[in-house]
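Example pasted here:
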Amino acid sequence: MIDHVSVGVSDLERSARFYEPALAALGLIRLVTRPATIGFGKAYPEFWINLRAGMTPVPHESGTHICLRARTTAEIDAFHAAALASGGRSDGAPGLRPHDRVRYYAAFVLDPDGNRIEAVTFPSE
């Protein structure tokens, strides 16, 4: 299926300050640091941020987003709180979402460049 994903960022250090605490809440840590890219993951880099110095903010209406799996609703709450504390903006507070086939708990944030990142879990209770 999917091995890894990456997002473009206009300022690598600013984005690292955003992503490190937000992704840590989901168990992903910084594993690779290079001059123009940083890779986060659990055992190998699954999520990359790549410097695109001339990048303009991602338009909200682009519809693009990346969803990361969490183990618990508490991880999602922590992801959302860390993202907001680190310069992100909420695009959907943590909570249950209506869905036709499963219980779906998620939160959505926008990183400093407007990339839409979701964290999701499927609680059984």
DSSP finds two helices and eight strands in the chain. The mean pLDDT is 95. The two ends are 28 Å apart (CA to CA). The CA atoms of residues 34 and 50 lie 10 Å apart.
